[in-house]
Design brief:
The protein has one domain. 89% of the residues lie in helices and 0% in strands. The chain has four helices and no strands. Helix 1 runs antiparallel to helix 4 and helix 2 crosses helix 4.
Length: 147
């Protein structure tokens, strides 16, 4: 069966429909991008307001990731001597830093409980901001796909 030939009105309306659909998709993508950018901006403001807590949160996340990545036997064999040297230097630096930090915190009138609360709050806010940004992007993508 052959199709009926298109009329000139049908042929002219196809590009318009395509352009209209493209315009709608472009608008929705731009809206999703703007929403995600707004949420990440809010997360950045939160991090800027408390950089020490951001640093501590980053160190904690790095330590967790490092602990979860498995080590290979050959890696252990080759890096063990170097690891021992680095470990000794790190323990010495840690001891010096710990005592200096404790003195500085004591002078500033801060307790370890207050610092833990700040780090916990920062991590919670960063996770919330990331979750909201992701949800906004997904919602915008779903909305643009459904139209």
């Amino acid at each position: 069966m052959s199709k009926a030939p298109k009329t000139s009105a049908q042929a002219e309306s196809e590009p318009e429909v395509r352009n209209d659909a493209y315009g709608k998709v472009s608008e929705r993508v731009a809206a999703a991008y703007a929403a995600a950018r707004e949420k990440t901006g809010q997360a950045g403001e939160t991090l800027e307001s408390n950089p020490l807590a951001a640093l501590l949160g980053g160190i904690a996340i790095g330590a967790i990731a490092g602990a979860l990545i498995p080590r290979l036997p050959k890696e252990k064999e080759l890096l063990a001597p170097l690891g021992e040297k680095i470990g000794e230097a790190a323990r010495a630096a840690l001891g010096a830093g710990k005592s200096a930090g404790a003195e500085a915190l004591e002078e500033a009138g801060l307790s370890s409980d207050q610092i833990r609360a700040q780090v916990s709050k920062l991590v919670e806010q960063a996770l919330k901001a990331a979750n909201e940004a992701g949800a906004a992007a997904i919602d915008a993508a779903r909305e643009s796909a459904s139209r």
